[in-house]
Every structure is written in structure tokens, then in C-alpha cells.
Amino acid sequence: MTEETEIFRDAQTLATFSNLNDAQSADYFRHNFQDFLPEDWWDIEVTIEPREITRSPERLSLGPPGPEERLKVWIKNQRELREAWQAGFPLEKCVRLISEGAIPYHLHAATQTQLSPAFRRATVWPYQRSIMFLATESWRARFCEHCGNRYVAEKPGRHYCSVECSGAARKQSRRTWWDEHGEDWRARNTKSKQKETANRKITRRITR
Fold first, then answer.
1. C or N terminus of the chain, fewer CB within 10 Å?
2. Distance CA 89, CA 196 (A)
């Protein structure tokens, strides 16, 4: 696998991470992409101030926020990733996202949680490289025009996250066209067939 192919696959994994929306999908990602981001993100919690909670359009907790809220690190960073995706990966947000993948000493000081050896080392995670990739080629970070999920485009002309969504969109387009033009098409087709039948009858009379 070339480096270019590998970074593109990592970016696709980043899109998968951004689309996690329940405990089951998060657990699947955690156990199937173990080296993509720090393992500690799944267990360490941080305190979020109310203004940080309410500014997000995709807040994962239920109900109105209290004076403060504690979130898992992965949820906090996923929320910031979604904001960056929506904004087209601006520089400031990308720097913040990349730095979150570095050693978060403030987390250890605040939570007294024992960090894993990999988290204590200055590891460069695929998560960070993926953000850098999309920061330099932000046109790739898109939303599927059918299902709305985030995905990474391999070419500018792509509009859907998968073959399934592309096929479903084509079917929907055909159904929409038929709803709008089906009766007119059927009427024209019937008229054309009637005219063709009449012409054949005339031709038979002439050739007898």
C-alpha cells in the first residue's frame, strides 16, 4: 500500500469516526480501529463549560445542559471534528484537533487517570495525519447528498458516500421524474403507438 493510499484510507476512517452516533457503533469502532486514536480517549472524561455545550449543533447528551457537563474525550473531540467538517477544516480548528491527539497533560492532572504508555509518548496518530490531510485538501470532506453522512471523496465529481447511496439516489430521482412527468410521457407514448398502428393499417391497404 502506498503512503497516498494509506492516508486516504485513514481519512475515510476519520469520516467513520465522525459519524458514530450510538454506543454500539462507538464500541465497534473502538475494537476494530484500535491504533487510529489514543485508547484513553474512550475512558477519560473532561468537564465542558455550558457555553461550549450550547454552541454545538450536534450535542450528544440529552436534555438542557447544567452548570457543567462531563464528556468522554472521544465525544468532545468528535464534536469539534464535526464542527471543522462543517466549516471546511479551517486552520485554527485543525490545529486544535491535531493538538488534542498529542499528550493531554491537563487531562491527567484533572482526572488523576493513569494514562497508557502510548498516550504518554509523543505518538503521531493516524487521526492527526487524517486531519492534516483534510486541512490541505478540504474539498474531499463532504456530506453525502443522500444519507447526509460525512465522507471523503476520492475525486471532485463524487456526491455520495457509497455505491448503495448512489443507487438509492438514482432510484429516487427516477421516481421523482415519474411523479412529475409520468402521465405526460404515458399519454405521448400511447398517442405515438396509436399513430404507428394507424400507419401500418394504411400501408396494408395500399399494398393489397
1. C
2. 60
How many domains are contained in the chain? Answer: 2
Q: Is the same domain home to 72 and 42?
A: yes
Q: What torsion, rounded to 10 degrees, do the Cα atoms 34, 38, 39, 44 define? A: -150
Looking at residue 146, its amino acid is: H
Q: Can you give the residue range of the structural domain that contains 187?
A: 162-208
Residues 143 and 168 in one domain: no
Same domain, 30 and 105: yes
Mean pLDDT in residue range 73-102: 92
Percentage of the chain surpassing pLDDT 70? 65
As to burial, measured by CB atoms within 10 angstroms (0-12 exposed, 13-18 middle, 19+ buried), residue 121 is: exposed
SS3 48: strand
The answer to whether residue 94 scores a pLDDT higher than 70 is yes
96 and 141 both lie in a single domain:
yes
Q: Report the interhelical angle of 126-136 vs 3-18 (nearest 10°).
A: 100
Residues 91, 48, single domain; the answer is yes
**pTM of the full structure:** 0.71
Three cell numbers, residue 123: 505518538
Answer yes or no: do 120 and 33 share one domain: yes
Q: Angle, to 10 degrees, between the axis of helix 91-100 and the axis of helix 126-136?
A: 170
Amino acid at 125: W
Give the helix/strand (H/E) hosting 195.
helix 163-207
